[in-house]
Amino acid sequence: MSSYEDRDKCHFYYKIGACRHGDRCSKKHIRPAISATIIVPNMYRKTDADNPQMVQENFDAFYEDVFTEAARFGELQAVVVCENKNDHLSGNVYFKFASPRDAHAAKDSFNTRWYNERPVYCEFSHVTDFRDAVCRKHDANTCERGDECNFMHLRRPTSKLLVELEKAQWRQNHVQ
Ligand SMILES: [Zn+2]
Ligand SMILES: [Zn+2]
Fold it and tell me: Which stretches does the record call C3H1-type zinc fingers (predicted)?
């Protein structure tokens, strides 16, 4: 790839899967024709509660729901959820499959569904390595940009739930 092309590409769109300028960005946003990762923008809505335990419990229920639904289409390598508050990242859910073919099947199916009384909108995403996309400061609770940060602020499921989901997926893919 030439350096000219590199300069022309929107870093945020390619590395984080969403850019605050959206379609009005002066740099290029070219959707991948196929990818192992799909994105559903603005899917997760944080529970409006002061009780952090309740927020986490509701999140875990959401996470289990979407993980289980996506896992029907094939092996998942990652499901990540953003809890940023800015429009382009708020509640974004990324599903990374082992196979682009499975991601394609999931995308086609999701695009026919409704979630929370809204039609689901799902597309392929360039993001395959979330390490470059995640805000490390948020993980350390020190992000000075807060909810408006342009890197992913992830909300994670409780580790017990994640272990259960991964075990269930392993059984599904290894026992016929
Ligand atoms: Zn952009
Ligand atoms: Zn941040």
Answer: 4-32, 129-156
Which residues fall inside 5 Å of ion ligand 2, going by CB? 135, 138, 143, 145, 149
Q: What's the 16 CA to ligand 1 centre distance in angstroms?
A: 10
Extended beta strands in 66-160, E state: 76-82, 93-97, 114-115, 118-119, 123-125, 154-155
Question: How much distance in Å is there from the Cα of 8 to the middle of ligand 1?
Answer: 10
CA distance 81 to 94: 7
Full set of structural domains in the chain with CATH:
3-174 (3.30.70.330)
* Cα distance from N-terminal residue to C-terminal residue, the chain: 43
Q: What is the pLDDT of residues 102-140, one digit of tens each?
A: 999 999 999 999 988 899 999 999 999 999 899 999 999
